[in-house]
Amino acid sequence: MIELKLPTMTCGHCVRTVTRTVEAVDAAAKVEIDLAEQRVRIESQQPKEAFASALAEEGYVPAA
Predict the structure, then answer these.
(1) Which is more confidently placed, 45 or 64?
(2) First-residue to last-residue Cα distance in the chain
(3) Residue-range definition of the domain harbouring residue 48
(4) Is residue 63 in a domain?
(5) CB 3.0 to 4.6 Å from 9: which of 14, 50, 53, 56, for a disulfide?
(6) pLDDT tens for each residue of 5-59
């Protein structure tokens, strides 16, 4: 399970964009988003870095 904290994810539009971005990296990924906690959990065989990079390109840079 990959978990990323996305401080710039603040609304429903952000949730849709993050979901689409994750699915673009791995269409089979299971995505669980907690908007209140600004956290996304991803179940995938792809490396964490692939998701972090794709999300950063969309403006959602994961917090360290």
Answers:
(1) 45
(2) 17
(3) 2-57
(4) no
(5) 14
(6) 999 999 999 999 999 999 999 999 999 999 999 999 999 999 999 999 999 999 9
Is the Cβ–Cβ distance between 27 and 47 less than 8 Å?
A: no
- Residue 7 in any domain: the answer is yes
Strand partners, 2: 42
CA–CA gap between residue 64 and residue 44 (Å, rounded): 20
Distance (Å, whole) CA 3 – CA 40: 6
**Token pair listed for 18:** 């993050």
Helices (H) and strands (E) in the chain, counts: 2, 3
Question: In Å, how far are 24, 33, 53 from 36, measured between CA atoms?
Answer: 24, 9, 22
Beta-sheet pairing, 2-5 with 30-34: unpaired
The amino acid sitting at 28 is: A
Task: Report how many domains make up the chain.
Answer: 1
